[in-house]
């Protein structure tokens, strides 16, 4: 039944899977080693890897059996199989900041500390610090980042010029002033737009939080969303959307809704993940594609501190009986060559070298490359609380965002959220 449920690409892979499935489930490593079973998410990265697979199979003498699933199906599969201690997944694509800590704590992810140091040509030091930090657990490498995201400032060049502004804002005070000036020049256009939903906004709000000098927890691991810095960040973010955002701004927007406002020409500034930039620059998707510019995340009192995170990584199932060959796949799929190929197709990579290579940035807008470079230099390696139950935590720390947008007391909302978040952390620690 397991074979029938799999999505296997290529006749030869299907034949190999059928012949070797029972052997892979046993203790005979020599039999299992001929097929590496890889579970991947539906993503452009996955499609690119599938096209390159014949090269890997020819070089390695191995066969790769791919299961490809949507995010929800992927999570369901992992919950069932990893909880059961199944060995029939070798390599898995996972979200380090959404489930990485839970997976590592439950010992689902193999320790790759020796592997990442074993090949100097592969060069683990080439990976950016933020994504590496996010794929580690208790100072051990448990994953390799494959796709990165940074928060940058999207803006409309034409609206800035109309308002008499010659350059995008460099800090948050300038952003507020510029948004105010643009809206004054044309009241039909919002000065600023961003995510507003309680949970979806948390990731984009995080860069504001860090740039004000705050974080979700303090250095001792205690809840810190009611620090003075956090209160200032909540008040700023909520106030900017309330005062300079769209009229009657909704408090349940995720990125599609916020992006739509920007691409329909209804906002001057928008802070968002760089990975979504083609939605703004593609004429088929955006009415303002020819006037969009990009800039580094504006600096706050603590400087410009956007997140620089791995949205996806590859890990190896700790119960896999084929870990050696699983690593061969991971090593190849995250190599400099494959990362460069992915980057050229529009998938932002985690290696420093691909951003320094003109080939790796040729398809990106020049100002976006510069904004990303600034983000990777000073970026923070997480964009949400690093906990086991991430979804629940986001609901708690996101409430003051909604309250601030609605004009409620942001400081009081932060105090209430902090008490709830500390209880949540205490419960997780039990």
Which features would summarize this protein structure in a list?
two-stranded antiparallel sheet; 21 helices; D-Maltodextrin-Binding Protein, domain 2; disordered N terminus; 2 domains; alpha/beta; ABC transporter substrate-binding protein; 430 residues; SBP; 8-stranded mixed beta sheet
Rg calculated over all Cα atoms? 23 Å
**Residues in β-strands, percent:** 5-15%
Note the gap between the termini: 38 Å
Low-pLDDT stretches are 1-31
Q: Class of the largest domain, according to the CATH hierarchy? A: Alpha Beta
Count of helix runs: 21
The structural domain count equals 2
**CATH topology term of the largest domain:** D-Maltodextrin-Binding Protein, domain 2
Q: Name the CATH architecture of the largest domain.
A: 3-Layer(aba) Sandwich
The count of strands amounts to 10
Global outline: globular
Please summarize the sheet with the most strands.
8 strands, mixed
Average pLDDT, rounded to a whole number, is: 91
Helical fraction: 40-55%
- The CATH homologous superfamily of the largest domain corresponds to Periplasmic binding protein-like II
Pfam family, one: SBP_bac_1
Organism: Micromonospora acroterricola
Keywords: Signal
Protein name: ABC transporter substrate-binding protein
Description:
With 430 residues, the chain is an alpha/beta fold. The chain folds into 2 domains: 2-147 and 310-366, Periplasmic binding protein-like II (D-Maltodextrin-Binding Protein, domain 2, 3-Layer(aba) Sandwich), CATH 3.40.190.10; 150-307 and 370-429, 3-Layer(aba) Sandwich (D-Maltodextrin-Binding Protein, domain 2), CATH 3.40.190. 50% of the residues lie in helices and 14% in strands. Strands 1, 2, 3, 6, 7, 8, 9 and 10 form an 8-stranded mixed β-sheet that branches. Strands 4-5 form a two-stranded antiparallel ribbon. The longest helix is centred in the C-terminal third of the chain and has 20 residues, at 410-429. The protein is globular, with a radius of gyration of 23 Å.
């Amino acid at each position: 039944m397991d074979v029938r449920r799999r999505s296997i690409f290529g006749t030869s892979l299907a034949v190999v899977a059928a012949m070797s499935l029972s052997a892979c489930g046993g203790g005979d490593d020599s039999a299992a080693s001929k097929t590496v079973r890889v579970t991947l998410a539906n993503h452009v990265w996955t499609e690119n890897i599938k096209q390159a697979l014949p090269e890997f199979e020819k070089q390695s003498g191995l066969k790769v059996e791919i299961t490809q699933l949507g995010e929800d199906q992927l999570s369901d599969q992992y919950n069932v199989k990893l909880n059961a201690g199944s060995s029939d997944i070798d390599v898995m694509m996972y979200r380090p900041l959404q489930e990485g800590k839970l997976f590592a704590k439950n010992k689902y992810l193999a320790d790759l500390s020796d592997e990442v140091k074993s090949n100097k040509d592969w060069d683990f030091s080439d990976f950016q610090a933020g994504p590496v930090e996010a794929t580690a657990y208790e100072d051990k490498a448990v994953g390799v980042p494959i796709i990165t995201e940074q928060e940058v400032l999207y803006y409309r060049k034409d609206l800035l010029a109309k308002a008499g502004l010659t350059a995008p804002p460099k800090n948050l005070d300038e952003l507020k002033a510029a948004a105010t000036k643009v809206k004054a020049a044309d009241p039909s256009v919002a000065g600023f737009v961003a995510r507003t939903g309680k949970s979806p906004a948390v990731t984009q709000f995080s860069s504001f939080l860090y740039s004000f000098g705050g974080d979700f927890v303090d250095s001792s691991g205690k809840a810190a969303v009611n620090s003075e810095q956090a209160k200032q960040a909540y008040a700023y973010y909520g106030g900017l959307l309330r005062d300079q955002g769209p009229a009657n701004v909704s408090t349940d927007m995720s990125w599609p809704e916020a992006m739509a406002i920007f691409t329909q020409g209804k906002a001057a500034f928008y802070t968002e993940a760089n990975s979504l930039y083609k939605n703004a620059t593609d004429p088929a998707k955006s009415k303002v594609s020819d006037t969009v510019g990009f800039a580094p995340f504006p600096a706050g009192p603590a400087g410009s501190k956007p997140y620089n995170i791995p949205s996806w990584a590859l890990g190896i199932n700790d119960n896999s009986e084929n870990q050696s060959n699983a690593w061969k796949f991971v090593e190849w799929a995250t190599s400099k060559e494959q990362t460069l190929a992915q980057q050229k197709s529009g998938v932002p990579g985690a290696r420093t070298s691909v951003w320094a290579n003109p080939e790796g940035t040729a398809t990106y807008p020049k100002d976006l490359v510069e904004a990303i470079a600034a983000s990777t230099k000073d970026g923070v390696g997480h964009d949400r609380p690093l906990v086991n139950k991430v979804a629940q935590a986001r609901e708690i720390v996101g409430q003051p965002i909604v309250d601030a947008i609605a004009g409620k007391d942001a400081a009081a909302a932060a105090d209430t959220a902090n008490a709830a978040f500390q209880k949540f952390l205490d419960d997780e620690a039990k």
